[in-house]
Design goal:
Length: about 450
């Protein structure tokens, strides 16, 4: 720590009135590294003004004392906030996001550090000259707690050539870079309250929603130049510290599902999960020696339902390759293709399953012309009057939007003269029919891979 010989900051940063970049730094028990992190921001050479916003989360070590010395020495650059109680990473991050004033937004955790004094200038220049991009990352070096090179690479953060990420190739690189390498436009103020709530709701790694947000507004640039170090630690509030002792396959599965649901919301497209979800779940369920707690068993049942949806409606990759044991390739996402032979149909059920099936079918081009429910207290469903089951449906197919009352509702339809499989379909039958239709639609790539 070199607080005694504080850095000389380029005067340009103090003279410009407009803040071009806000750098958000979260700190919790980073006593050993926070000085290096702060100084790596202060050393930036820019022709614009930037600020460093530090959110110290009630550390139990001397992190706060170190931050206070820097904040007092650089009041024109550093704004420091000290939580009276520990909020945890997510809430601390949300509060710090609300303090951002710059045109651009950057991130640096209190245990990482930048190595290139021109980092901010390079990234801001790129974004100023390329308005079609919403943000950019750069390559990173991975170090251990002592700053020595680490054998493992940071997922998605090590690359050596420039490249672009858009919605089409994002599934192949869902984490374009490590958080400390990011500079993006200040996009959160653009979000409606509903989208902001969706952005905050996933349980996945906090780095994951950021590129999804950026791709709502433009492309992402990856700059193949090392300009920072990512410190892999197992203390404090680091990701690896929080993941110790946990089944990462299980955690990754739900992160993938959360991530892809968020993308469907932000990009206004049908929900198309990543193929990794299925392989991760398969690995978990096949692991005979993995002891599952009661809570995990409940989540597994939820996961099985998600996979059922995946197989039923989404068919994103070539199952023939999975069947013969080859390494499957990830196929580009396509729009959901429903069985067009269904044509118009009647939806029987307006509960949670009714909402899900309505969205999946209408996204796929199937027209729902009538809605039934035995409980007609819900009088209107997506603009249609809800009525009780009857016999005059003019050859339209009936879809049972239920899981728990299939037998009871089926008996009711049988009494009205309808036959299962020809006049009405259960969810299981609908899955099978839509899946076959998806295969017939040639949803896979035509290049034979």
């Amino acid at each position: 720590m070199s607080v005694g010989g504080l850095l000389n900051v380029k005067s340009d940063n103090l003279n410009n009135t407009e803040i071009m970049v806000s750098v958000s730094m979260l700190v919790y028990n980073h006593e050993r590294w926070v000085a290096q992190a702060i100084e790596s921001v202060l050393m930036q050479k820019t022709n614009f003004r930037y600020e460093l916003i530090i959110a110290e989360d009630c550390s139990t070590d001397k992190s706060r004392e170190i931050i206070e010395k820097y904040a007092n020495a650089y009041p024109d650059i550093i704004r420091a906030y000290y939580n009276p109680v520990n909020l945890g990473m997510d809430l601390n991050d949300q509060q710090n996001d609300a303090r951002v004033r710059g045109k651009y937004y950057a991130i640096l955790e209190g245990d990482d550090y930048w190595t290139d004094p021109n980092k901010l200038q390079i990234q801001v220049d790129f974004l100023e000259n390329n308005p079609e991009y919403s943000g950019c990352y750069h390559s990173v070096k991975v170090v251990d707690e002592n700053g020595d090179p680490f054998d493992a690479e940071c997922r998605g953060g090590v690359f050596h050539t420039d490249s672009d990420i858009d919605r089409d190739n994002w599934p192949e690189c869902p984490m374009p870079g490590q958080a400390g390498t990011l500079v993006m436009r200040n996009l959160l103020p653009k979000l409606s309250p509903e989208l902001l709530d969706a952005y905050r709701s996933p349980k996945c790694n906090g780095d994951v929603p950021v590129p999804i947000l950026m791709l709502r507004y433009g492309k992402i640039r990856r700059i193949g130049r090392d300009m920072s170090c990512y410190r892999r630690t197992y203390t404090g509030d680091s990701y690896h510290a929080r993941m110790q002792g946990k089944d990462l396959r299980f955690i990754d599965y739900f992160q993938y599902m959360d991530r892809d649901r968020l993308a469907s919301i932000f990009w206004d497209q049908p929900y198309l999960p990543h193929y990794d979800c299925m392989l991760l779940l398969q690995g978990i369920l096949n692991d005979k020696e993995a002891g599952m707690a009661e809570g995990e068993n409940k989540l597994i049942r939820m996961a099985v339902y998600d996979i059922g949806q995946f197989i039923a409606f989404l068919a994103v990759f070539d199952y023939r390759r999975i069947a013969i044991g080859e390494e499957p390739r990830l196929y580009r996402r396509k729009e959901f293709v429903a069985d067009k032979s269904i044509g118009e149909c009647v939806l029987f059920g307006t509960g949670d399953y009714g909402e899900r099936i309505y969205k999946l079918l209408t996204d796929g081009g199937v027209k729902i012309t009538e809605v039934w429910d035995n409980n007609i207290r819900k009088k209107v469903f997506h603009g249609m009057n809800v009525v009780k089951p009857h016999v005059n449906i003019k050859n339209r197919l009936i879809i049972l939007a239920t899981k728990d009352y299939v037998e009871k509702m089926g008996e009711q339809l049988e009494e009205l003269g309808y036959k299962q499989g020809t006049d009405y379909l259960t969810l299981k039958q609908l899955r099978q029919r839509c899946y076959l239709a998806t295969l017939r639609s040639k949803i896979f790539r035509g290049d034979g891979r």
